[in-house]
Amino acid sequence: MRGRPAPLVAFERPALAETARQLWSLGLGSLPIATLALAFFGVVLEKHAALQAQRALLDLDRIGPMFMKLLVREFAPIMAGSVLAARLGSATGAELAWMDASEQLDALSLYGARIGREVYLPRLLAGILGTLLVGVVGVLAASLAAGGFAQLTGTGRLSAFVSPRLVDGKDLALFWAKLGLDGASLPLAAFLAARRHGRGPRGIARAASTAVVWGVLCVLVWDILLGLAFA
Amino acid sequence: MTPALEIAGLDMSFGGRRVLDDVAISVGFGEVVYVIGRSGAGKSVLARLALGLLTPDRGEIRISGRPLDRRSPGALRRSRSGASLVLQGAALLDWLTLEENVALPLRHRRRLSRGAAAARARELLAGVGLAELAFALPGRVSAGARQRAGVARALALEPDALVLDEPTSGLDPQAVRQIDDLVRAVARRGTGVLVVSHDMRSLRRVADRLVFLRDGRVRFAGKLAELGPGLDDELDRFLAE
Amino acid sequence: MTDRALVAAGRAVGRPLVGWLRAAGALALLAGRSATALGSLDGRELARILAWDGAQSLGLVAITAALAGALVVVQTGFFIRQLGVLGLLGWGAGYASLREVCPLLVALVYAGRVGAARAAEVAALRAGEQLPALEALGVDSVRALLAPRLWGMAASVLLLTAFGDVVALAAAALAARGWLGLPVLEFWRSMRRSLGPRDAALGLEKSAAFGLAIALSALRAGLAAPANGRGVGQAARAAVVHAIGWILLLDVLLTGGM
Q1: Which are the contacts of C56, defined by CB distance < 8 A and separation ≥ 6?
Q2: pLDDT digit string (tens) for C55-85?
Q3: What digits encode the pLDDT tens for the residues B107-122?
Q4: Is residue B59 one of the residues assigned to a domain?
Q5: What is the pLDDT of residues B183-212, one digit of tens each?
Q6: What's the burial of B99, exposed, middle or buried (CB within 10 Å: 0-12/13-18/19+)?
């Protein structure tokens, strides 16, 4: 991989079986931790909201529908992106660096396989689809957790938090755009990190951690740029 | 007289495979004993067992007559304080200078101050011919120098018994000779030295006695002079080297 | 048949449970031994860790915090503009940055960069037999190597978050000026009116807990991975994933205590 040009994968047809396998291991594999993360984050947000509502003597049930809008526009994409940057980024970065170090990539191309089609593109597609999936499940998890928590602690009603009343088309467009770009950036960041660090056990570890850091930065940058574009 | 290191009735298995079978070795003070055998004969396992880094299925290890006490990490540390081990490649910490590496056991075991530990470390390094490399990082010196620094670190605690795992593996002939001389010098000071190796040239130069392992069992133990052809076909091949 | 099903169910629940309990026990042991080593910490090793992990992450934390500050303004700005209460922006952005976004993002980035690298280092020390070699010399590797790493990492997360807070607030003020035309002084006043040192302190309290969680996850992952080349990569990944799990759980628990 080292010394070869950057992976130009967008115009190849992906190997479907490998895409499915990646989607299974990365997308679905990340689902439990990402769901848990967003559920936790939903509770944290509810607590902050309750704290501020109490201060301003507001009714939390009136904030509830706003909560879903905030979640769709802002919090779900950034939390899903950050958690996937860690889970998917580190796994893909380490895996590709390991494949490079153990000369599996060289062996693949020696046997005439197209690395873009067999290795990169499936991971890219799995990244995008997996992120979209995690985002959707995350919104549900966070709003259910927040609403459930509000109901349990008596600060608000569950139904107010899971109401999509205020979510409009623009919010949804922003949601899909952020998740899609995050999902594409994370595998690409991992490819580049693996290319840069490869070789040796420490190289593999550095590839994994660089992939995470670059992934988180990509997520933040997309979030700001799209937030401004959709403001 | 109590031996410096005594291994008795040692059994060890990994995943159902017997690696060591009723192994007994004794190393007297000031004596150099070589353990030889093919790769996979259980030599390196033996070196780690001797210092309690692994726990045997059965058998006992005594250092200067005191049995290894495995009841807790602290008890183990105390009971093996009379012995040191130099692993293959010396296993120095690569972000510390040679001097800091040698000073480490002095500061953490002997509780010497930083200055006193550093001064003693420089003496020890000078003793193995590395005075001028005291401030070099392990990655910047030759494999032979790393190995000698490893011996200096092991000698820092003035052990009764020193175990060396493949000390000359991968070294050039000059570095091998330096290590051999060092092993002899350590033994002259009264330390019992157990060397695990397959380097026959070093063995002939340095060893007082040798122990030959095959399939985890001791097939020969005795002085070099007692060796002759026909004891074991594999040993014959070793001797022919 | 029911017996067999019961046994199978018991196994399905018991195995992971035992695994979790063992991991928790190992973590507690490591934390306890590191805490007892706190009094006699190797100062030079600690300084080395702080310099490497703290100082070398400064640039990355600055970028992350600046992005976080801008992000908070973009996120709250949308709603604040809709509601027409521009004067609340300083409060909203400051509150979110200090209490939530800054501690969380600094911890996430630190876990990815330093936590993973330290886990890999510990795994590599085991693969290269440096740790067993020290143990064979009677040197307590927790006291000599692991405790300085643990406290160094925990302290650098705290210091980096404090630094990140400053950068994030400055970036938020500039973003509010650039994007919404809110004068910096106005932003500052709005922040001062409703926020106090308590808000920063609560955020830093969180980051202290996050730092410990990252450090413990990293060391534990390094010690638990197989002692070979592949284990090094595995340790790095496990460290990141576990740290994130702990960070989010602690975030929930600590937000509750506010």
Answers
A1: none
A2: 888 998 999 999 889 888 887 877 777 777 7
A3: 888 888 989 999 999 9
A4: yes
A5: 999 999 999 999 999 888 899 999 999 999
A6: buried
Bridge partners (DSSP) of residue B212 are B36, B220
- Order of strands across the sheet that contains B217-223: B83-86, B161-165, B192-196, B32-36, B209-214, B217-223
Residues in CB range of C166: below 8 A, 6 or more apart: none
Q: Is B114 on the interface with C (CB under 8 A)?
A: yes
Chains touching B, CB cut-off 8 Å, 3+ pairs: C
> How many structural domains compose chain B?
1
Chains B and C touch (3+ CB pairs under 8 A): yes
Inter-chain touch C123–A201, beta carbons under 8 Å: yes
CA distance B40 to B42: 5
On whether any CB of chain B is under 8 Å from the CB of C132, the answer is yes
Scanning every residue of chain C, which has its alpha carbon at the shortest distance from the alpha carbon of A92?
Answer: C237
**Closest in C48, C125, C138 to B81, CB measured:** C138
Cβ contact C254:C213 at 8 Å: no
Domains of chain C: total: 1
Report d(CA B143, CA C59) in Å as an integer.
37
Question: Which residues 42-61 of B are in CB contact (within 8 Å) with C?
Answer: 48, 51-53
Kindly state whether B237 is in contact with chain C, defined as any CB-CB distance less than 8 angstroms. Answer: no
Q: What is the ipTM of this complex?
A: 0.77
Query: Which chains reach chain A with 3 or more Cβ–Cβ distances below 8 angstroms?
Result: C
pLDDT digits (tens, 9 = 90+) for B29-52: 999 999 998 877 788 889 999 988
C144 contacts in chain B (CB < 8 Å): 104, 108
Q: Which amino acid is at C127?
A: A
**Closest residue on chain B to C141 (Cα):** B108
What pLDDT does C89 receive?
82
Answer whether A33 sits within 8 Å of C109, measured CB to CB.
Answer: no
Mean pLDDT in residue range C1-17: 78
Locate the chain C residue with the closest alpha carbon to B104: C139
Residue B93: phi and psi, rounded to 5, are -80, 125
Average pLDDT over chain C, rounded to an integer: 86
Distance from CA of B208 to the nearest CA of C (A): 25
Q: Determine the average pLDDT of the residues in A145-159.
A: 86
> Shortest CA distance to B99 belongs to which of B107, B109, B110?
B107
Instruction: Report the C-alpha gap between B94 and A11 in whole angstroms.
Output: 46
pLDDT for the residue A198: 57
Residue B239, domain CATH: 3.40.50.300
Structure token pair of residue B20: 């060591």
- Show residues of chain B in contact with C139, CB under 8 Å: 104-105, 108-109
Q: How far apart are CA B123 and CA B145, in angstroms?
A: 15
Is residue A128 within 8 A of residue A188, CB to CB? The reply is no
pLDDT surpasses 80 at B106:
yes
Instruction: Please give the Cα distance from B82 to C137 (Å, whole number).
Output: 9
Q: Which residue did the predictor score with more confidence, B62 or C22?
A: B62
Chain centre to alpha carbon of residue B190: 15
